[in-house]
Specification:
The chain is 20% helix and 28% strand. The protein has 251 residues and is α+β, with helices and mostly antiparallel strands. The longest helix has 9 residues. The structure holds uracil. Uracil (URA) binds next to helix 6.
């Protein structure tokens, strides 16, 4: 997406950001005369360009400028919500169609949580969506082991006193399947959705724990106006539509 107000930046930085190689590789390409700016060979990789106005080519192929990218990922279990990790595959590793090299996940889902994760390099949007002052709704589908206490809906609505002396904001609990049904492993479960406006560490699991219940499956269904596309299988992603981006920016 074009960003008309962008300040001039170094040619090598621009090409690194567009995923065309490391700074050293870009310098070597420039020295070999493979890079052109506005049709002229440019051997100085540290010169400044205006990415929204100047035409940059490598080997005569235009390099499209993407200032910001936005992806919706259906995060699978076993993948970590981070940009780098020494043990696990990261959510960024899954976004193999990205141009930008500065993408990050907006917030975290636990290793064993599935569902909606926004991946972008738009720091201002991420900041707004994650700000505790903004009270952005996050809806989770949870499978809880056994039965919930009778007063579970009311207790969630009142806010839960956590073990470390902190009280959650009011949350909305909806029971989808109150009659416990045996799960694949033969454990009876209750299926619910929980809407919360915060995003503290293990928050949903800890809120159910406070009611004496264990979450055995957790999936995020939405974040503010952004809903997980049900066509996306775990591990799949797609770019956000212009409309979805607009809605998020107006959140
Ligand atoms: N709450 C949790 O407990 N885990 C998540 O991954 C997200 C919310």
């Amino acid at each position: 997406m074009a960003d008309k107000g962008r300040k001039p930046l170094r040619l090598d930085r621009f090409l690194v950001e567009m995923g065309k190689g490391s700074r050293k590789e870009i310098r070597e390409m420039a020295q070999k005369g493979r890079i052109r700016v506005n049709g002229e060979v440019e051997k100085k990789s540290d010169r400044k360009i205006d990415p929204s106005a100047d035409q940059v080519e490598i080997d005569r192929e235009p390099v499209e400028y993407a200032a910001t990218e936005y992806f919706m990922l259906n995060k699978p279990q076993g993948v970590v919500s981070a940009t780098e990790d020494s043990r696990y595959q990261t959510v960024i590793d899954l976004i193999d169609g990205a141009v930008r090299r500065d993408l990050f996940p907006v917030g975290r889902l636990d290793l064993d949580t599935e569902g909606l994760l926004l991946i972008t390099n738009d720091g201002a949007l991420a900041h707004r969506l994650l700000s505790p002052k903004k009270h952005v709704d996050k809806v989770y589908l949870a499978h809880v082991k056994g039965r919930l206490p009778e007063n579970a809906v009311k207790r969630m609505e009142d806010g839960i006193d956590m073990e470390d002396g902190w009280k959650t904001l009011p949350a909305v609990l909806k029971i989808i399947e109150s009659v416990s049904t045996p799960s694949e492993e033969g454990i009876p479960v209750t299926k619910v959705t929980l809407t919360i406006q915060e995003g503290k560490f293990h928050q949903v699991k800890r809120m159910f724990e406070a009611l004496g219940c264990q979450v055995i499956y957790l999936k995020r269904l939405s974040m503010g106006p952004l809903k997980l596309d049900d066509k996306l299988l775990p591990g799949e992603y797609r770019r956000l539509t212009e409309e979805e981006i607009e809605c998020l920016k107006n959140t």
